[in-house]
Amino acid sequence: LVRVAPRLAVAAPARRSTPGQHGKVELYRALAEQQPALYADDLAMVLNNRSNRLAGFGRYEEALADVSESDSIRRALPGSLNSLVASLSNLGRRRRARGRRSLSPVE
Fold it and tell me: Where would I find the H helices in the chain?
């Protein structure tokens, strides 16, 4: 089973989805609206994680939207340089995957 599971995951990526990640995003979005100082960075993190997962499924437009939102949140947070660097790195990968070269939202 340990050897077969990775092959099955690669063979059927279209059947997989991210309901757990979606639930986490919605939970942290609600928490961040109530207490942004406590939960905004967590929201950015789960958005970034969901972006990575969506990109792995080939859902690049959705991944780009999530990582762009994560980037916006992290830019507004003081002292989150490491998180911002990770977010910008993922944003660059998502944009390149969609054939976009600049970080500008409008090209």
Answer: 4-11, 19-34, 36-56, 60-76, 81-97
Average pLDDT across the chain, whole number: 76
Q: Which two tokens stand for residue 33?
A: 């609206």
Q: Which amino acid is at 16?
A: R
Residues of the chain with pLDDT > 70, as a percent, come to: 68
Contact by Cβ (8 Å): 63, 94: yes
Dihedral of CA atoms 8, 96, 92, 28 in degrees, nearest 10, equals -50
* DSSP code, position 64: H
**Phi, psi (degrees; rounded to nearest 5) at 92:** -60, -45
Quick one: pLDDT at residue 80?
64
The CA–CA distances, whole Å, from 87 to 2, 10, 24, 72, 84 equal 32, 25, 18, 9, 5
CB 92 within 8 A of CB 58: no
From the CB of residue 106, how many other CB atoms can be counted at a distance below 10 Å? 4
- What is the pTM assigned to this prediction? 0.64
Quote the CA–CA distance of 40 and 84 in Å, as a whole number: 13
